[in-house]
From TrEMBL:
The chain crosses the membrane at residues 94-114, 120-140, 147-166, 172-189, 194-211, 231-250, 262-280, 286-304, 311-334, 340-362. Signal peptide: none annotated. This is DUF2157 domain-containing protein. Keywords: Membrane, Transmembrane, Transmembrane helix. It comes from the Bacteria. InterPro entries: DUF2157. Residues 57-196 form the DUF2157 domain.
């Protein structure tokens, strides 16, 4: 560098040294000062893509780097390269999509109940689809999740066909409970987050239909309030919510993010529905407070977990907002005679509740991203 400076003017030498020093400072700053944003592994700067891109743009402007050094920083970031897991992710995604489409086709085919096809043909087709799906999962590990997902859907179609054809007299919840119980066998063996998510959906539908206390069956809820089931149902949804968090601890599956989000969405939806109907339809404040407390517990658990899942956090905050606004509406309707004033107060309170919740979530996510 010194020999190069002897051949150019002093002013230009200062600019060259400043550019080299800026480049070294950027690399040092990236590796030591903001390790959560990016790191230098000897060949590339790696980290969160959007954050690295914005940081490179900022540093190029701040240190007035020329085009070659800016290009070098871009190459170090590795943002121009194809993600290493892209091909595998696309293959798995397309396989799961194919399994969903095939399984949905079987279910819709059973629902169509075409009279031109014999019972033996329908039964043989469904049994064959189930058997082939399970057998395909044995020697084909990369497509095991997709094959077993197809087997799960084929099993549901088979059970529905048997109930439809032979008139077993079973309640709808018994179909889903049997479906979940039989599918649990390969769900435990496969140790797949996606399969656990599908299994939780089936089990959740069984609980919802059994309880008859959710929005899936509001008419039965209004006509027949079964106190035993109404108090047991929220506790069953606690099991549904907690199961994905317990699976990694039991060594059944790796961290189940998809299953956790599905379980949280179902449990929070059920608690909101139960609390809403308990407060506005049945006038049971104790049941409302129980469901409100359970939704608040989900928020507390989500805040305490590391790393935080902001999707679950957002769903918990939304559920609390709905329940709080429903409770406020119930109080205003019961104790206020000024309809216009009550509606205005409820509107302002709802807007404030949602706005404060969104602001808090945004600041929480921003602070965690900057940490």
């Amino acid at each position: 560098m010194a020999a190069h400076c002897k051949r150019i003017s002093s002013h230009r030498c200062d600019k060259v040294l400043a550019a080299h020093w800026a480049f070294l400072q950027i690399t040092w700053h990236c590796t030591l000062s903001v390790p959560n944003l990016c790191r230098y592994d000897g060949g590339h700067l790696t980290g969160r893509g959007a954050g690295v891109h914005a940081t490179i743009h900022e540093w190029v402007q701040r240190f007035a780097l020329d085009a070659p050094r800016a290009q070098r920083l871009w190459q170090l970031s590795g943002l121009h390269q194809q993600p290493p897991e892209l091909k595998r992710a696309l293959e798995r995604g397309l396989a799961l999509l194919a399994a969903l489409l095939l399984g949905a086709g079987l279910i819709f085919w059973v629902a169509a109940n075409w009279q031109t096809q014999t019972r033996a043909f329908k039964l043989g087709l469904l049994e064959g689809a189930l058997l082939l799906s399970v057998l395909a999962a044995l020697p084909w590990p990369r497509a095991r999740t997709a094959a077993l997902l197809l087997a799960t859907l084929a099993l549901g179609a088979l059970l529905a066909f048997v109930g439809q054809t032979y008139q077993t007299g079973a309640d709808p919840w018994q179909l889903f409970a049997t479906w979940a119980g039989l599918a649990l066998v390969w769900t435990l063996v496969a140790r797949s987050d996606g399969l656990w998510a599908a299994w939780l959906l089936i089990a959740g539908l069984a609980i919802a239909l059994w309880s008859s206390d959710t929005l899936l069956n509001p008419l039965a809820n209004l006509l027949s309030w079964r106190s035993g089931r109404s108090w047991l149902t929220p506790l069953l949804w606690v099991v549904v919510f907690a199961l994905p968090m317990a699976l990694p601890r039991l060594g059944v599956v790796a961290p189940a993010r998809i299953a956790s989000r599905i379980a949280a969405a179902m449990a929070l939806s059920a608690w909101v529905a139960l609390g809403f109907w308990a407060l506005l339809a049945r006038d049971q404040p104790q049941m409302f407070m129980l469901n409100l407390a359970l939704a608040a517990a989900v928020l507390a658990v989500s805040l305490a977990r590391r790393p935080r899942d902001f999707v679950v956090l957002a769903m918990a905050v939304l559920a609390l907002d709905v329940l709080v606004i429903a409770g406020l509406a119930r109080v205003l309707v019961a104790h206020s005679r000024v309809e216009v004033g009550s509606a205005l107060l409820l509107t302002v309170a709802s807007a404030a509740c949602v706005g404060l919740s969104g602001t808090w979530l945004y600041r929480l996510q921003s602070s965690e991203g900057a940490a």
